[in-house]
Specification:
The structure holds two protein chains of two kinds. Chain A is mainly alpha-helical. Chain A has a single domain, classed as MetI-like (MetI-like fold). Chain A is 74% helix and 1% strand. Chain A contains 13 helices and two strands; from the N terminus they run αββαααααααααααα. Chain A has a two-stranded antiparallel ribbon. Chain A starts with a helix and ends with a helix. In chain B, helix 1 crosses helix 13, helix 4 runs parallel beside helix 7 and helix 10 packs antiparallel against helix 13. Chain B starts with a helix and ends in a 5-residue tail after the last helix. The chains are: A mainly alpha, B mainly alpha. Chains A and B meet through helix 1, helix 4, helix 5, helix 6 and helix 7 of A and helix 1, helix 4, helix 5, helix 6 and helix 7 of B.
Chain lengths: 292, 277
């Protein structure tokens, strides 16, 4: 009976394992392999030519790669930081018994549920020359002339960050809330009896107990922020002059617009290495997640 | 003291209204703009409400791009993706919680690790593989890869749920002579209905919104998804925002309906399972 059940167990795991093997593991390994070759769509007939670390050397000398990498990393750091702070505030609020609770929880689902492309399109309209943002700023006399939000490098970056924070903070706050809900209420009651204030409670009870949830949430948010593609495609398409292009966009262009498969693979692998390095920092919290 | 409580209450109410407004403002503006004429949209300062609401933008949205076909494609692809994801995912979760197979933890950690892979490390080999197999520009091809990307979340979620279901039901069924597949279908699936429903909705929304893979793998109009189709309205600047807004609302209509109808399931799904971008 036992052995039979074990056999059936492997059988039931098989479809998932097979799908993952063919569509995730194989492509990832293949990309790593291709990154050591010169492969171009235009010269496909000649076949791939082994270049060793040639593509990597090229990437280190490629100024545009560094530009896209810095912007991707800055975008990730700033957006995740803001989303964590604001998300935590929201989660703490949603954790209290207050009127309007249901409304808040439904409202936060809206930015999360709508496609990034759609939110990008609407925010682009908000930030346009004659858009709502400029006219609001003008109404409060904060600006004299309309700002060219999406035409100026730093303003474009700021616009993208604002749109991203709007879209992703709600989800972050729900995950943090799920962590908060696991903290027993009597911890706070006991602390209150001992005379601890709200801030003290947050630092000594909430933070340590929510740390595991928080790090997993932050890790997943970091990884997904580093992939950013849709939002920027919808808002600036990488402009002005490629200054808001991310590594993902650069890799996709290298693959499919320039047909340079080998170099595209190299850019992807570099991104993969950075993702792994960041994940390593969070390994301890993943272990706690693994023991659920 | 009483006054202070009063001020706090008013302050909170103001905050609440402001917060709700910020969360839904882009949506409200989109709805409003979709009924505006071109003149309304070009006025400075911008109008917030249409002066003479009309359906003209919707009519143009339907003509400019075959958006209803895109919606159909999205539905077909999303539903296949959900079906594959839930079937494979629930089987895997069963194996991981109810059988004596080895490397359970390894598999779970591995599944978590692959959900951290950047899409760009997968996309070109998948494109090449699909091109060889004739799966580019098909519903099933795109649905399969999308379902695999949502599989880690599904497996984690259902494994966590199954761990909390007492094993006693299954044991009594086993005594009655039911085999493992019968137990799975007749006992566990009905017990897990609510959880399976929640995760299905999460997968549905995730699959509907997938952009990069859909853009690269299904480039032909006949198989294009609606989220990709939507970006084509922007390609020329002559198209007023009202038309894009109308198309955008058509795109998100199923999602909004789900949020309003199933918010409890969605919240439960996010907060119980919660490993998702």
């Amino acid at each position: 009976m036992e052995r039979k059940s074990t056999k059936a167990g492997y059988l039931m795991l098989f479809p998932s394992a097979l799908l993952i093997l063919i569509l995730i593991v194989y492509p990832a390994v293949n990309t790593v392999y291709q990154s050591f070759f010169e492969i171009r769509t235009q010269t496909a007939a000649l076949g791939p030519r082994f270049v060793g670390f040639g593509n990597y050397v090229k990437a280190f000398r490629d100024e545009h790669f560094w530009d896209t990498l810095w912007w991707t990393l800055i975008f990730t750091a700033v957006s995740v930081f803001l989303e964590l702070i604001i998300g935590m505030g929201l989660a703490l609020m949603m954790n209290r018994k207050i009127p309007g609770q249901g409304l808040i929880r439904t409202a936060v689902l809206i930015p999360w549920a709508i496609p990034t492309i759609v939110s990008g399109i609407v925010w682009t309209q908000f930030f346009s020359q004659n858009g709502v943002i400029n006219s609001t700023l003008a109404a409060f006399n904060l600006i004299k002339e309309p700002l060219n939000w999406l035409g100026n490098e730093w303003l474009a970056k700021l616009s993208i960050l604002i749109a991203d924070v709007w879209k992703n903070t709600p989800y972050m706050s729900l995950l943090l809330l799920s962590g908060l809900l696991t903290i027993p209420k009597d911890y706070y009651e006991a602390a209150e009896i001992d005379g601890a204030g709200k801030i003290r409670c947050f630092i000594s009870i909430t933070l340590p107990l929510i740390k595991a949830t928080m790090s997993v949430t932050v890790l997943f948010r970091i990884i997904s922020a580093m992939r950013v593609y849709d939002l920027i495609v919808a808002m600036t398409a990488g402009g002005p002059a490629g200054r808001t292009e991310t590594v993902s966009m650069y890799a996709i262009n290298t693959y499919f617009t320039y047909g340079n498969t080998g170099y595209g693979a190299t850019l992807s692998v570099l991104m993969l290495i950075i993702s792994i390095a960041i994940s390593m920092l969070f390994v301890d919290s993943l272990k706690t997640k693994g023991s659920v | 003291m009483k006054q202070k409580a009063m001020i706090q209450k008013v302050g909170y109410a103001v905050f609440l209204v402001l917060f709700l407004f910020i969360m839904i403002a882009p949506m409200l503006y989109m709805i409003s703009a979709s009924f505006m004429s071109e003149a309304d949209l070009n006025v400075i300062p911008p109008k917030l409400l249409p002066s003479a609401p009309s359906l003209a933008n919707y009519a143009r949205a339907l003509v400019q791009q075959p958006i209803l076909k895109y919606v159909y494609n999205s539905f077909v692809i999303t539903i296949i993706a959900v079906a594959i994801c839930i079937t494979a995912g629930s089987m895997a979760s069963y194996a991981l919680t109810r059988t004596n197979i080895r490397f359970k933890t390894t598999f779970l950690v591995f599944v978590l690790a692959i959900s951290l892979l950047p899409t760009i490390t997968l996309i070109n080999p998948i494109f090449k593989m699909y091109s060889k197999l004739g799966l580019l520009n098909t519903h099933i091809g795109l649905a399969v890869i999308i379902s695999v990307l949502d599989l880690p979340m599904t497996i984690w979620f259902l494994t966590a749920v199954l761990k909390n279901v007492p094993i006693s039901f299954e044991e009594s069924a086993k005594l009655d002579g039911a085999n493992m597949f019968q137990i799975f279908i007749y006992i566990l699936v009905p017990l897990l209905k609510a959880s399976i429903f929640s995760i299905s909705i999460l997968v549905f929304i995730g699959a509907w919104n997938r952009f990069l893979l859909s853009q690269v793998l299904n480039q032909y109009e006949d198989y294009r998804t609606v989220v990709v189709g939507l970006t084509l309205y922007q390609t020329t600047h002559t198209i007023p925002f009202g038309v894009v807004a109308a198309a955008g609302l058509i795109t998100i209509f199923p999602l909004l309906a789900m949020v309003l109808l199933f918010q409890k399931n969605i919240l439960g799904g996010i907060m119980e399972g919660g490993v998702k971008e």
